[in-house]
Amino acid sequence: MEIRAALCFLAVMSVEPSPDCPICQRLHDFIAEWRIKEPSWHNAPVPTFLPVGGIDSVKLLIVGLAPGVRGANRTGRPFTGDYAGDLLYGTLSEFGFSRGTFAARPDDGLELVNASITNAVRCVPPENKPVGGEISNCRRFLTPTIEQFTNLRAIVTLGTIAHQSTIRAFGQPVAKFPFSHGGQNDIGNIRIFSSYHCSRYNTNTGRLTTEMFKSVFADVRRYLDDLPE
Ligand code: URA
User: Any idea where the Uracil-DNA glycosylase-like domain is (predicted)?
Assistant: First the structure.
């Protein structure tokens, strides 16, 4: 128990969980099962995807939900190998937030431009559903992740869980900043743009169309381009 507490304390100070993060027992056990089934996979917390320009170049942060088991949990890069990544990376490229060709592999050479991608929960959850305690546990990484980007001006939150965890990371009550697709809220000098998650479920059911998703990023592009130097 003492070792666990010490690990938790160290983790509080870090932007990334340790590769064998013990904080959420259920997620730790789930990953352990996948390490046995698929030893060649990443099977660990998925780190934030940073641009080549480094932390100081980041103006936009995208906050997803959690790695998919056969996607980011397999490849080790957010939204890579996940169905959701096809729409996300295609849209980022269209609005100038990436360069290179996305090929759903971490070695495809795709580079983010002034943008970074992270997840509210860094470990793959069973059935893509993190529970409340896991979401709040993992906020100890989301908060310093946001804080490290000193030039950050925009965040896109994908889905209600990412939205609420981001609002809480700012120490704000979610009731004051409710989720709505296409919604925009300013917290300090950072504008939070909310979108339905670009999951296969949401696009298949028509809750989120490609046009709806692109329109959020068109708003982000306009907002960033219109900011004074
Ligand atoms: N892959 C991720 O990394 N995050 C999501 O939210 C969905 C898929």
Answer: 51-217
